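W.,

You were right to be curious about this one. When I first looked at the sequence I had no strong expectations either way, so I just let the prediction run and decided to look at it fresh. Below is the sequence, 287 residues in total, followed by the output.
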Amino acid sequence: MTSEKGARLGVLFALGSFVIWGVSPLFFALVNHVPAFEVMAHRILWSMPVIALYAALTGRWGAFVQAGREGRTMLSMALATAFIAVNWFFFIYAIQIEQTAQASFGYYIYPIVAVMLGAMVFRERITTLQWSAAAVAGVGVALIAVERGELPWIALVVAGTFSVYGVIRKTVTVGPLVGVLWELTIASGPLLAYLWFFGSGAFGQDAQTALLLIGCSLFTGIPLVMYVEAAKRLKFSTVGVLFYINPTLQFVSALILGEALSLPVLAAFGIIWLGVALYCYDLMRRA
């Protein structure tokens, strides 16, 4: 495959994954009658076979087994799993309490938070524009806190857990797909135990709910595979800019779901988007 064709395919994979993740609130809203933790459990458990099959078909099973023999790697993967599980839980929880827009806001500011963590943990250089983007986004967060009388904690949890997850994964030598498969595998044990001891809950109530819970995997396994394939073919800056399709569609999904957003909050979002625009411009300028 030529690099040009590979890049085109990479863009298609990236668009596919970010669009699927972006519209996922519309699907997860269909299971709002199911506790968020149970939804997350089924999302992970039904995704694992998809990722495992893909790993086997693409010759990565040996790498998966080898990683499992490395104790230090497994400790890092377990820590990464904890952070991504918290991220997934609060994303679903936000949809259930009609705070999808706030969750999308967390994914907007995530790359900026990641840049700050990169500077603190890995001593990475931060450009003037990146500092400016972080400052502008910080103003937006402060405005939302003032308007609502509290910090937008869901957004901060979403951004913070995803950023720390990224920092941990950066220190692990396993590939993206093998890492994702180990995350799902590590999480599956406690989740299966939870469902076994506390009952399957809503899963056995009716066929429609059961099918919807199985369908949650469509918004985890498939887009994860597409994202991994996109990351292999595209520059980091390209993936970073395309990433914003995800929270943008999540924000649109929030509006479709009828979430009420005051004018001050919309204005704060506008300021955050300005910070994001500065960040994206800096990425593209240095690409």
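Here's what jumped out at me. Residues 3-285 form one domain. And, maybe more interesting for your project: The mean pLDDT is 86.

Coffee later to discuss?

I.
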